[in-house]
Amino acid sequence: MSQINRRRALQLLAALGTTGLVAACGSDEDPEGASTGDGRPIKIGLVAPTSGAYKAIGDEITNGFQLFLELNDRNLGGHPVELLTADEGASGATGKAAVESLLKQGVLALTGVANPAVMLGIRDTVEQARVPLVGSNASPTSLQSVVYIWRTSYVLDEAGRALGRHLRDRLAPSDKVAIIMPNTPAGQDVLRGFRRDFGETDRRIKGPVVWTAPLANPADPGKTEFVADIRRAIKGKPAALFCFYDGPAATEFIRQLRGEGYKGKVYAPGFLTEGSVLESFAKNPETALGIQTALNYSADLGNTANRVFASAYRKKHNTTPTTYAMASYDAAQVLDQAIRLAGQNPNSQQVNLALGKIGQIDSPRGTWQFNQPRTPQQKWYLREVQLDGQVLSNVLINELATLG
User: Fold this and answer.
1) Interhelix angle 323-342/348-355, nearest 10 degrees
2) From residue 317, how far is each of 60, 147, 164, 188, 312 by CA, in Å?
């Protein structure tokens, strides 16, 4: 937590009685904890959706980055920050337009991006501009050989890999696993990772995959959108079901799955029950109870960095932080360190080089570092939806694997 401004953290956390957690949160260069802010002002561009199916994720991305700035007197690396924002839209074309608008305004670095399709669509623009992008969500496996694109989130096949090796050892030899997910590049990434670590030839997952069609309106899926496909998936009475959905589609999928009478085990990447999805079941908690997911973050992790982050986030937003907010908070943290390394008058190329030198990150998810493909080498966790008093929560069960 060496980069968090101690004075600002104390202000945000005092009402929670957690001030002792930030007693040593000043920067290494300033043991009293105050940011010097003596560098020249810089501009950072944040790309995130402001409408549509990814809006909730976009809000979390914005909240996480803004929180780090507030804990640091709106400085990164000793430089006052002007945060410029642009709506990524819903496609590669709209994402490219958003990035180009920020580049024209002279941003030192970019961050954000919720939609995998947008990330792929802006790849060439970012690389040609030679301006670093520290992405905080979307990371398709096909995004390879990049120099200026870094990600603080995950690669999409990793959640499938973590669950694949867990279920391989947990399920009985006679258990059958039904697999259902959207026929999209992201769905194919998740399935590829799941099969890889479960075992390509394992008979328990040899049944046909039920691919659901891409939604006509992802922000508002129909109340029976998945019913026919769910019936196909559970027809053989599987012992477990593996799926991959997020946002409004996840909410409807879970409701329709339970509506069709399926009461067996449900496993998925953590997006299935993250943030607004879990909140949507507040009035009918039994619908989501018992679902187990794999993710690189759990809000109840006990490390000091997470206690500070989660407490500050709950105080500001009155809700539990998600992996999306955490990864964006970390994006700000790595930019803070890289810009500091780049010196008093950094340019984009110097910041990009410095990103490769920052080493381990003391993160709310636990310590991690960038690997050679510029994605995190990090722990993955198994979580289960349980009631914490009257509130549904993703409760940490155990660590699954270190991947990346």
Assistant:
1) 110
2) 10, 35, 34, 34, 9
pLDDT in tens, 41-100: 999 999 999 999 899 999 999 999 999 999 999 999 999 999 999 999 999 999 999 999
- Is 245 within 8 Å of 274 (Cβ atoms)? no
SS3 track for the chain = CCCCCHHHHHHHHHHHCCHHHHCCCCCCCCCCCCCCCCCCCEEEEEEECCCCCCHHHHHHHHHHHHHHHHHCCCEECCEEEEEEEEECCCCHHHHHHHHHHHHHCCCCEEEECCCHHHHHHHHHHHHHHCCCEEECCCCCCCCCCCCCEEECCCCCHHHHHHHHHHHHHHCCCCCCEEEEEECCHHHHHHHHHHHHHHCCCCHHHCCCCEEECCCCCCCCCCCCCCHHHHHHHHCCCCCEEEECCCHHHHHHHHHHHHHCCCCCEEEEEHHHHCCHHHHCCCCCHHHCCCCEEEECCCCCCCCHHHHHHHHHHHHHHCCCCCHHHHHHHHHHHHHHHHHHHHCCCCCHHHHHHHHCCCCCECCCCCCEEECCCCCEEEEEEEEEEEEECCEEEEEEEEEEEEEC
* Exposure class string for 69-88: b at 16+ Cβ within 10 A, else e: bbbbebbbbbbebebbbbbb
User: For residues 124 and 369, what is the distance between their CA atoms, to the nearest angstrom?
Assistant: 25
Which pTM was predicted?
Answer: 0.90
- What pLDDT digit, counting tens, does each position of 111-132 carry? 999 999 999 999 999 999 999 9
Q: How far is CA 164 from CA 83, 86, 185, 197, 225, in A?
A: 40, 37, 19, 5, 27
Q: Is 37 left (phi over 0), alpha (psi -120 to 50) or beta?
A: left
Residue 111's DSSP bridge partners are 46, 134
Token reading at 398: 């155990």
Crossing angle of helices 323-342 and 55-71, in 10° steps, is: 40
| Confidence band, pLDDT 50/70/90 cuts, at residue 248 | very high
Q: For residue 97, which amino acid is it?
A: A
Q: Which domains does the chain possess?
A: 6-154+300-370 (3.40.50.2300), 157-295+382-403 (3.40.50.2300)
- Cα Rg for the chain, rounded, in angstroms? 21
Type of residue numbered 398 = N
